[in-house]
Amino acid sequence: MAREILPVADRAQVRAYARRLMLQHPRELVLALGLHALAAVTGLVTPRLLGGLVQDVANGTGDVRVDVVALAIAGFVIAQAVLIRFAVFASSRLGEKVLAELREDFVDQVLGLPLSTVEGAGSGDLITRTSRDVDALSRTVRHAVPETLIAVVTGAFIVGAVVLVGPVMALPALIAVPLLWGVTRWYLNRARDGYLRENAAYADMTEGLAETVDGARTIEALGLQRRRHERADRDIARSLAAERYTLGLRMVWFPAVEVGYVIPVVSTLLIGGLFYIEGWVDLVQVTTATLYVQQLIDPLDRLLSWVDELQVGGASMARLLGVANVPEDRTPGAARPGGKDLTATGVRYAYREDRDVLHGVDLEVRQGERLAMVGPSGAGKSTLGRLLAGIHAPRTGAVAVGGVPLVELPIDELRGEVALVTQEHHVFRGTVRENLLIARPEAADADVWRALAAVAAREWVEALDEGLDTLVGSGGQTVSPAQAQQLALARLVLADPHTLVLDEATSLIDPRAARHLERSLAAVLAGRTVIAIAHRLYTAHDADRVAVVEDGRITELGSHDELVAAGGPYAALWESWHGTAK
Ligand code: ADP
């Protein structure tokens, strides 16, 4: 199956964004460019002085003051060095500033991504964008952009100087222009796609490896090692092919460009010599122009070698900006919920076209009700739970809170209404307190403790060396999966939405503790609507109503007692579970 990848920005978007970034700090930009221009002008003096010296010697002028000229040259070289130092400082500072803004933009965009998109695209692509692409772009902004600017400014001044020395002396150097132009165009036409392919192949490889590592036990249990090996080999081969392609481009381009540098110097000297013999120019002009053209190699080389880096950076930027092109999965409207009842009407949903996993679900959950969803695995409980929490929009039908479809609520508002807790949680690197405050940054310690108590986690947090200040997450104190689940639930208590969807949210906690936890949670959540997807039937037993989901439909709905009395599927389920759970 072709993986849906996150979009990539087009050239126009990248250009517009780069321009906006550059012009955001006009004063810093003018300062940096001005300093580089001054440095370039200072560098132009030496060839002119040397040209004069050659002329004097040729003329046989008696008192050639080599020492004075040498001293002057030394002075200008020092002045140029000092100017370059400040120029580099100014442009680096500007680069860092721009980079920081770019990173912030990107983080904002990633955090704003619709969850359904992130799940569809897989984490590999996002990981590659946040690591490799951000790195590539930092290199570009730190080095390539300032170096290119310096090269352009310096080059422009040198060309100007050659023209000033004698317009005809600028002609011989032009011989190299078609070669450099042609081969660089050839390269640029291919490079962007090549680098995009390279990064995409790398993303696939990362994705595959991350999957293998995450699912190592499953792979071992099912004996899938060979298949994973093959997938890794295939990904590596594709990545290698993509790298080879861009390497191939560079192998044509670099040597051609190197030749292109030498030609102007040689031609200026030779053709300039002919001009001199013809008497069109004097020695000062030939010497100075040749030295200038020689000087031009440096900025030209920088420019062209950074053009390559700019391509890499441009491709990365296209991928970073592309994240902003992800279409919104919600269409916020102006209507505000007129109540807290959650209703699903005629809900159908498909992960893949033509394969509905929910076949017209109607459900009304009143405010404050506790509803348990049970049923065989694969029946569609989690899917329904995600729709009820507004993560996905139904294909047809509607899920609404207080009469307003969830997909028409801005995401911040939605989270204040309905929240979902699944079995997957993440403990962030930071203190226990920081992990909980994500849900409500302004909460006081007392609230945090209350939330921990509600999920039966107060005791073990108190027992930690530094209590709420203990570092957890990668590199910190290890917390068990069950404790991580408790922290996720405590976050939910802090966030305090009026409706909660719990998808096997206590599955990792041992059964006895889980029942205790669910009861203390219920006490804290009194008055809140709770929809719990459960595989332990006592959750259903404790709930106000039970919905049995089978094959994408709600086949039974009623209180535990009613359903047991009805003798249908739930009664059978309860009978077998009750029998074995004892
Ligand atoms: P339950 O929670 O009852 O076990 P799910 O809602 O997880 O059921 O799954 C319902 C159906 O949807 C199953 O057939 C499952 O294979 C399919 N499904 C679930 N998640 C996805 C997904 N991300 N992509 C494609 N199919 C999915």
Detailed description of the structure:
This protein has helices spanning 11-23, 26-43, 45-59, 66-111, 115-121, 123-165, 177-214, 216-221, 225-278, 283-322, 381-388, 411-417, 432-437, 445-454, 458-463, 481-495, 511-524, 537-542, 560-566, 569-581, and strands at residues 342-352, 355-365, 370-374, 396-401, 404-405, 418-421, 430-431, 471-472, 499-503, 529-533, 545-550, 553-558. With 582 residues, it is α/β, with parallel strands linked by helices. It folds into two domains: 11-325, ABC transporter type 1, transmembrane domain (ABC transporter transmembrane region fold); 342-577, P-loop containing nucleotide triphosphate hydrolases (Rossmann fold, 3-Layer(aba) Sandwich), CATH 3.40.50.300. The strands form three sheets. The protein has a six-stranded mixed β-sheet with strand order 6-9-10-3-11-12, with helices on both faces. Helix 3 packs antiparallel against helix 4 and helix 14 crosses helix 16 (481-495). The longest helix is centred in the middle third of the chain and has 54 residues, at 225-278. The mean pLDDT is 86. The protein binds adenosine-5'-diphosphate. Adenosine-5'-diphosphate binds at residues 351, 357, 375, 377-383.
List keywords for this structure.
20 helices; alpha/beta; 582 residues; 2 domains; ABC transporter transmembrane region fold; binds adenosine-5'-diphosphate; 64% helix; Rossmann fold; six-stranded mixed sheet
